Amino acid sequence: MEELLTKTAAEQRKALLNKEISAVELINEQYKRIEDVEEKLQAFNSLCKEQAIETAKEVDKKIAAGENLPPLAGIPLALKDNINLKGTKTTASSKILENFVSPYDATVSLKLKENLIPILGKVNLDEFAMGSSTENSAFKITKNPWDTNKVPGGSSGGSAASVAGYEATLALGSDTGGSIRLPASFCGIVGVKPTYGRVSRYGLIAFASSLDQIGPFARSVEDAALLLEAISGCDKHDSTSLDIPVAQFSKSLNKDIKGAKIGVIKELLQEGVSPDVKKAIESAIQKYKELGAEIVEISLPLLEHSIGVYYILATAEASSNLARYDGVKYGYRTPDAKNLLEMYTKTRAEGFGDEVKRRIMLGTYALSAGYYDAYYKKAQQIRRLIKEDFDKAFEKVDLLVSPTCPNTAFEIGSKISDPLSMYLTDIGTISANLAGIPGMSIPCGFDTDGMPIGLQLLAPALQEEKMLNLAYKFEQATDFHKKQPCI
Ligand code: GLN
């Protein structure tokens, strides 16, 4: 039974359909596993057992009646705690929302329910998804299942750790500058950031609305493709969601990739990349050659500006999005204020953590009269040029590859007092959000300490099918995804 929890969704589905286990039993086993390891991993902010078991019961009824089941029905999933799920706490791992109960479902939550995917609970993140290590949570520090002294990456650290540590088979996270791909890389699993607009953001607590996307975590490319299919689609509640049909990502995984052109991003394999990561990426490139792909070196000269551009635009949007937490309508309110202004200022001073305050101040400054042109407008212009760099690259190649991160998971506490070095962790991932293109991370090796290394794949907008196909072929030809952490 324990072993079934380490399997992929596709394998667990087989066990359900063959009646080796019922959906309710699977969920109960999953909760037992959570009880066993949660003290070590600290991935969950809250559990929603009743809802999950109700969904599992429905799955069992359908199996008994011989009805058709959606592909991921009954497969246990962990939901990032910045995605609303009606009747459960949605905290964004912030004190300011500590007791906030969602009055409605995010569109992705509704889709999970329609697909009969049981939601186990809400998982930890950096407060308001601001961070790269999950150390910025107001509640707890999630640990990396491969080494509990190390971070799981962030901001969707709870999502990645729960899947890698077998507390869930699937998870959803959000990615504004790398928050799905980075933790997937640090925890040795698959994580996909879809094209901007592919998945509805309705009900996702906004960080930087022009960059945020929700996406899947899974143990295999096929599972990730199935989950992406389940959550994609146009939504009238999100004006930036794209009005295009949902592609059948899982149907085109096994296409031959002979002759595919893969570009290696030169700037992301230069100095600053750890020797172990470099070696793993180089052998991944070699593997693609063996699979028949043609490898080209691609230069993205503006990439070095992506961190600067991101930290102006993301903080500017955040400063505006977070203005709503003022102690009036919902969330935390300071217990002792003498007047209205003090109520606002004390509520925000007490409710937000240091990193969130740092971002609000940076963003407010970037948007202030007199500085707007110098910072915000300039950053928007460079964002455009970065996108054009990608457009040019994709005229030459089908896909770009790079390390997801220049290093593997680091020790808890080692970067927390140095925000700039923390920000640099995202050098490989941020530009995809600025350009709106899809990206993913897949396991491609281990460093000398046994920590996982991630290969990042980037594709042109709306070409997830091609990206997933190339990822699948690599996965089939390698064993990295089969190695298990001993947690
Ligand atoms: N690490 C980046 C940040 O701190 C990205 C976060 C994210 O993608 N949500 O902003």
3D structure, described in words:
By secondary structure, this protein is of the alpha/beta class. It has a domain of 279 residues: Amidase signature (AS) enzymes. An eleven-stranded mixed sheet has the order 1-3-2-4-6-5-10-11-9-7-8, with helices on both faces. Strand 10 and strand 11 form a beta hairpin. Helix 9 crosses helix 11.
How is this structure best summarized?
By secondary structure, the chain is of the alpha/beta class. The protein has 15 helices and eleven strands.
Keywords:
single chain, 487 residues, globular, binds glutamine
List the helices and strands and how they pair.
Elements: H1 9-17, H2 23-41, E1 44-47, H3 49-64, E2 77-80, H4 107-114, E3 119-123, H5 157-164, E4 170-175, H6 181-187, E5 190-193, E6 213-218, H7 221-231, E7 261-265, H8 275-290, E8 294-298, H9 306-321, H10 340-351, H11 354-367, H12 373-396, E9 399-403, H13 419-424, H14 430-435, E10 439-446, E11 452-458, H15 464-477
Parallel strand pairs: 2-3, 2-4, 7-8, 7-9
Antiparallel strand pairs: 1-3, 4-6, 5-6, 5-10, 9-11, 10-11
The structure holds glutamine (GLN).
Glutamine binds next to loops.
The CATH superfamily name of the domain at 2-256 and 459-482 is Amidase signature (AS) domain
Using the 3D structure, state the CATH architecture of the domain at 2-256 and 459-482.
Alpha-Beta Complex
Strand content: 5-15%
Helical residue percent band: 25-40%
User: Can you tell me the overall shape?
Assistant: globular
How can the largest sheet be summarized? 11 strands, mixed
Catalogue the unreliable spans. none
CATH topology annotation of the domain at 2-256 and 459-482: Amidase signature (AS) enzymes
Radius of gyration (Å): 21 Å
| Count of distinct strands | 11
Overall mean pLDDT: 96
- List the helices and strands in order: HHEHEHEHEHEEHEHEHHHHEHHEEH
Number of contiguous helices: 15
How far apart, in Å, are the first and last alpha carbons?
16 Å
Q: Based on helices, strands and strand pairing, what is the structural class?
A: alpha/beta
In spatial order, strands of the major sheet run: 1-3-2-4-6-5-10-11-9-7-8
* CATH class annotation of the domain at 2-256 and 459-482: Alpha Beta
- Which kinds of small molecule does this entry bind, naming each only once? glutamine
